[in-house]
Amino acid sequence: MEPSPLPVATDSVLRDLYDAHGPVLLNYLLRLTRGDRHLAEDILQETMLRAWRNLDTLVTEVLAVRAWLYTVARRIAIDHIRAQQSRPIELGDDRLDQRADPDDEVERLLNAESVRQALASLPDRLRIALIEAYLRERPVAEIAAALGIPQGTVKSRTFYALQALRRALEGRGFTFPD
């Protein structure tokens, strides 16, 4: 359930409350959060939201209000710390490749682009042999006739093209089983 909009009088009271206690409370929260400004500001915002929800019960004494705000802010900070401690440890991205989903479309697109770049880096004679043999799936005799070279040359170019392609892909971070 969303809170209703602030009446003008309540808005000014909350603004005065924030102006009087916000900067001091933020400094306190920065110490509690070990300098994490974003977290400290989030806690301050939550504290002010709770103050707004309890405006009718807050006393008007400045020191009593400040003590209440400090208590609420400290409890919210403790809740954040406990929530962070209960979360599983997040691993860095150094092991991300070990968890890659083989069916991930983005990963396939990136791999396909890397293969295209590696293929483009090959000399023409090797690249053409690979394209004809593996992408167009043409038989060796047909490739030899189309290029006007002996069948043995097609076979050797294909062999050397695969080796060169493997080296080019390894240079782009790909690994292959031995």
TrEMBL record:
One of its GO terms (biological process) is DNA-templated transcription initiation. Transmembrane segments: none annotated. GO terms for molecular function: DNA binding; sigma factor activity. Residues 17-86, 118-166 form the RNA polymerase sigma-70 region domain. Keywords: DNA-binding, Sigma factor, Transcription, Transcription regulation. Belongs to the sigma-70 factor family. ECF subfamily. This is RNA polymerase sigma factor. It comes from Dactylosporangium sucinum.
